[in-house]
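ARCHIVE CARD
Drawer: 12
Card no.: 0347
Subject: one protein chain, sequence and derived structure
Cross-reference: see card 0346
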Amino acid sequence: MRSSSSNNYRRGYYAERKASEELRREGYFVIRAAGSRGPVDLVALGKDVRLIQVKRGKGALREGAREILRVNIPGVSREVWVYNGRRGFVKEVV
């Protein structure tokens, strides 16, 4: 039997992987902050720079926004992507 923290990690990793794939299809070079406990999970470099916090589940948008707002770099997009399974991502620029 797997622990809930192990399952949460796997679900979060899966969501980050899906976000990375989407960004790569859009032409971005993506850097993943592995094991991230910080405000940024993905850095997408391309026509612009995007800092992305990836979340899953209800209430995740608010939590993600609180985390990513700690990072303030002029000219850089700060985003929260919440993965909702088959429905894909809900994306918010904060």
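Annotation on reverse: Residues 2 and 51 are 31 Å apart (CA to CA). Strands lie at 29-32, 42-45, 49-56, 77-83, 89-93.
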